[in-house]
Amino acid sequence: MVIPRIETEQHGELNCWRLTTAHAELLIAQQGAQILSYQRVGEPPLLWLSEDAIFGQGKSVRAGVPVCWPWFGNLQRNPEPVQAMYTGSEAPAHGLARTRDWQLLAADQQGEGLSVTFTLPQAQGQLPGWAHNVALTLQVELASELKLTLTSRNQGDSPVTISQALHSYFAVSDVRQVQVEGVEGLSYIETLAEWQQRQQQGALGFAGETDRIYLDTPQTLSIDDPHWQRRITLTSSGSRSAVIWNPWTERARELADMADDGWQRMLCIETANVWDDVVTLKPGASHTLGLVIGSQAL
Ligand code: TA6
């Protein structure tokens, strides 16, 4: 009988916590409040941790769930109100939260499960080039499923507009064999073809580099992995957009923190607020982006 426990660990330059329950194990770093790995007992990992991951200060780890905030991707590709929030010079990809140390606010046992909550204190007016006052928290609940809750509350006296994502890397047997269900018929932005808007025919399979923003997404998406006889389910809340990414061969070779064949074993589905789904918070208002990750036998 495993008693739920939380232990500290060091990985390279990063302070981490390992959460262990009778059902699952999860590793989370202080930098970015980034989940690095997640595995349920008796199953292959659910979240992917790159074999060539670099655990260094100031760079997001190629793994798990980086938190993209207060903008997603290239700031210049964001709607104007998101861009207008930032007055700094070079805007780092995927925002300012994933490369900074968060603070552990709470660690609790919940029955057979565990919950940890992190905050990014600098989001309350001390982020370089982003002088807004937002209370930002990420709660991670590890029970029979994994539940992530990212809450932004505007504590300032003028509106704040953000884009964001839980940039989740899922582990798969072979990306060429899996399908993403739930996107059938959706409009998407094809970022690899001049950001044209297109329509998805059927479920999504992978036969090349993929980097798409799906619009008006349903609450549940899933990844069917016949070889591992597993369906991963993603149930979102507070989100109407999702980014689906696989770098494929050439892009993977360019990434120092991914093995040349690493693209075969991963697939990102990023529960997001992007494109026409960005979030404007009036003074005092809050928004919660939620994701529950589960799995079933196929
Ligand atoms: O979410 C897709 C994406 O924006 C891709 O374009 C790709 O660059 C990926 O994220 C990873 O970005 P990163 O900055 O973590 O290397």
UniProtKB/TrEMBL annotation:
Which top-level group of life is the source organism from?
A: Bacteria
EC nos: 5.1.3.15
Q: Does this UniProt record's set of keywords contain Isomerase?
A: yes
| UniProt-listed InterPro entries | Aldose_1/G6P_1-epimerase, G6P_1-epimerase
> Which Pfam family, giving just one, matches this sequence?
Aldose_epim
Keywords assigned by UniProt, alphabetized: Isomerase
Family the entry assigns: Belongs to the glucose-6-phosphate 1-epimerase family.
Q: What is this protein called?
A: Putative glucose-6-phosphate 1-epimerase
Please tell me the species this chain comes from: Pseudomonas fakonensis
Q: What is the lineage of its organism?
A: Bacteria, Pseudomonadati, Pseudomonadota, Gammaproteobacteria, Pseudomonadales
